[in-house]
Specification:
single chain, 35% strand, 168 residues, Aminopeptidase, alpha+beta
Length: 168
């Protein structure tokens, strides 16, 4: 179930600290330093921040950076917990994205190439009628101090069919 992240601040940051230094999560944060807490906002003006929850456990964090003046999402920050209910998390991710697509004119997001979730981003983009805008070569440095390329996506809300989604 999707809930406001601010209502689960302590649990969320505990889960976040478990994963931030794991090698498989190096793609989630593209800095050569690490924040130890997620900065949660007290309103949704510039960010929408949610957690996926099931049976009191956090499945993941879903954040959208909002450009209110232009009415679009200009970045997503999404990660799944190490131990998560994948079915609930997938449904919550879909609900989160569907909600963004219905409220904003477009969604712009990116993925670091080599991330195991890149194929999922490609699929989501195709599913919602989006496009791959391009790839910036050696654009970011991950926390293992390696320069990596970043792939950018764009989905315009007018091409979205709301009848699609996980069939569980």
């Amino acid at each position: 179930m999707l809930e406001l992240a601010i209502n689960h601040k302590e649990k969320l940051n505990e889960e976040y600290r478990k994963i931030i230094m794991l090698p498989e999560y190096r793609f989630a944060c593209c800095f050569n330093y690490q924040e130890y807490d997620i900065k949660l906002e007290n309103n949704s003006y510039s960010k929408e921040q949610y957690v996926s929850i099931s049976e009191g456990k956090i499945n993941g964090f879903l954040q959208a950076f909002i450009n209110r003046q232009c009415n679009y999402v200009d970045e997503l920050y999404i990660w799944g917990a190490i131990e998560r209910d994948k079915r609930v998390y997938a449904n919550d991710l879909y609900k989160f994205l569907k909600g963004l697509y219905t409220r904003y004119d477009k969604i712009v997001f990116s993925c670091i190439q080599g991330n195991k979730t890149e194929k999922h981003y490609d699929r989501i983009c195709k599913l919602f009628g989006g496009r791959i805008v391009g790839i910036f070569e050696e654009h970011v440095t991950t926390n293992d101090n390696v320069k990596r390329s970043q792939k950018f996506y764009e989905v315009k809300s007018r091409v979205i069919s709301l009848d699609i989604g996980p069939k569980y």
